[in-house]
């Protein structure tokens, strides 16, 4: 089955009890048993599994070419589930540019429990290799990264993690499986903030993990079941509905993202535009190699003046773009990473990796491109 068919039919079955074409929202916490320990069907209790969530999880596995999908109550809950596999003394090597909440979890929750974290630019493979030792257990990357749109060569990293027997997880939130399939490139775990492009309509908080290895899938499912951060039936339904138009939406996000990039790149008030589709982007060759169909709808940029006030005034003037955290919905959003999504990263660390006070991040939506460009033009004036 091709991807555009999988988003609609992958892992889906008509409802066996009614023939309903779309999965019903099974708004129930529990399921009847005929005798103690003998449920009459496949389900016992919705923390363990629920038919609407199963429908979503099957779709997730299908579109990422995995064997098992798991749906969580948020993207961070999905990340937390992976991290729970490790203990004090274990080491994790992570990309140096990450969503602020992921960085906060690593440094303020897990570091305090004795896990050691190294943050490194994964494009420096020699440096990455030099950090691997007998305690290293997990490699974690986002690609493209939030908010600087750095890339990591998934295939090259997977070659090293396989050789060293490390678990390799890729946060595929920015790319989506329409553009990039980390499991096919050698990663062990794909993570999503399904709040973003998978849901696609800014109306749900959700997360996902997808794996190829069945034993790993069972282990993660046990951890999720035993700790409880599962996605409810109504939210599972919303994410599944979003996935059915993922290919159409992301295609338009890519078209609009490329046009917004071109406009910004030629604007005298704009200094640097970060977009993997730009030929001048330092990781454009990696993007071409591992991203198919386009380069996404996320664009970040800085101001020629370098002034925080210019970024703030631009953000306050926007009328079609909405100033808000999050991304990946049909509507265009704008964000100031240093004051909003990445404020939990200490200032010196932000400066070190390039999240400056004049950096703006745009989630380019699927509106008419003329209206988006007009809006940017007036706000930059
Ligand atoms: O918000 P939540 O569903 O828990 O997902 C966390 C998360 C994980 N990974 C990436 C790459 C993300 O962008 C996010 C959430 N990001 C935002 C809310 C944001 O505006 O960047």
From TrEMBL:
Its cofactor is pyridoxal 5'-phosphate. Keywords: Lyase, Pyridoxal phosphate. GO terms for biological process: cysteine biosynthetic process via cystathionine; transsulfuration. The modification N6-(pyridoxal phosphate)lysine is found at residue 196. Residues 1-20 are annotated as: Disordered. One of its GO terms (cellular component) is cytoplasm. This is Cystathionine beta-lyase. It comes from the Bacteria.
């Amino acid at each position: 089955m091709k991807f555009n068919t999988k988003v609609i039919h992958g892992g889906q079955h008509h409802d066996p009890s009614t023939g309903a074409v779309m999965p019903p929202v099974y708004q129930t916490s529990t399921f009847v048993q005929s005798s103690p320990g003998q449920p009459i069907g496949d389900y016992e209790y919705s923390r363990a599994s629920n038919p609407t969530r199963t429908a979503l999880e099957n779709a997730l596995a299908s579109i990422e070419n995995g064997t098992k999908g798991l749906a969580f109550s948020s993207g961070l809950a999905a990340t937390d589930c992976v991290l729970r596999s490790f203990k004090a003394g274990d080491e994790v090597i992570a990309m140096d540019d990450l969503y602020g909440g992921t960085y906060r979890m690593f440094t303020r929750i897990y570091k305090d429990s004795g896990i050691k974290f190294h943050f490194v630019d994964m494009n420096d493979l020699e440096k990455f290799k030099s950090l691997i030792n007998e305690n290293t257990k997990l490699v974690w990357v986002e690609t493209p990264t939030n908010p600087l749109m750095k890339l990591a060569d998934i295939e090259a990293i997977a070659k090293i993690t396989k050789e060293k027997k490390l678990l390799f997880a890729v946060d595929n939130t920015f790319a989506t499986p329409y553009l990039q399939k980390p499991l096919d490139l050698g990663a062990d775990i794909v993570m999503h903030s399904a709040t973003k492009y998978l849901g696609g309509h800014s109306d749900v908080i959700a997360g996902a993990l997808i794996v190829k290895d069945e034993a790993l899938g069972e282990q993660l499912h046990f951890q999720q079941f035993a700790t409880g951060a599962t996605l409810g039936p109504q939210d599972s339904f919303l994410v599944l509905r979003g996935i059915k138009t993922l290919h159409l939406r992301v295609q338009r996000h890519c078209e609009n993202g490329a046009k917004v990039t071109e406009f910004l790149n030629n604007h005298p008030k704009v200094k640097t535009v970060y977009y993997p589709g730009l030929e001048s982007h330092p990781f454009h060759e990696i993007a071409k190699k591992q991203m198919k169909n386009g380069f996404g709808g996320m664009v970040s940029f800085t101001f020629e003046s370098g002034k925080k006030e210019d970024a703030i005034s631009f953000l306050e003037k926007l009328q079609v773009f909405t100033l808000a955290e999050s991304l990946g919905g049909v509507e265009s959003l704008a964000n100031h990473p240093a004051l909003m999504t990445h404020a939990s990263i200490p200032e010196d660390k932000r400066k070190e990796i390039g999240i400056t006070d004049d950096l703006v991040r745009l989630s380019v939506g699927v509106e008419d491109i003329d209206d988006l460009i007009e809006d940017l033009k007036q706000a930059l004036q």
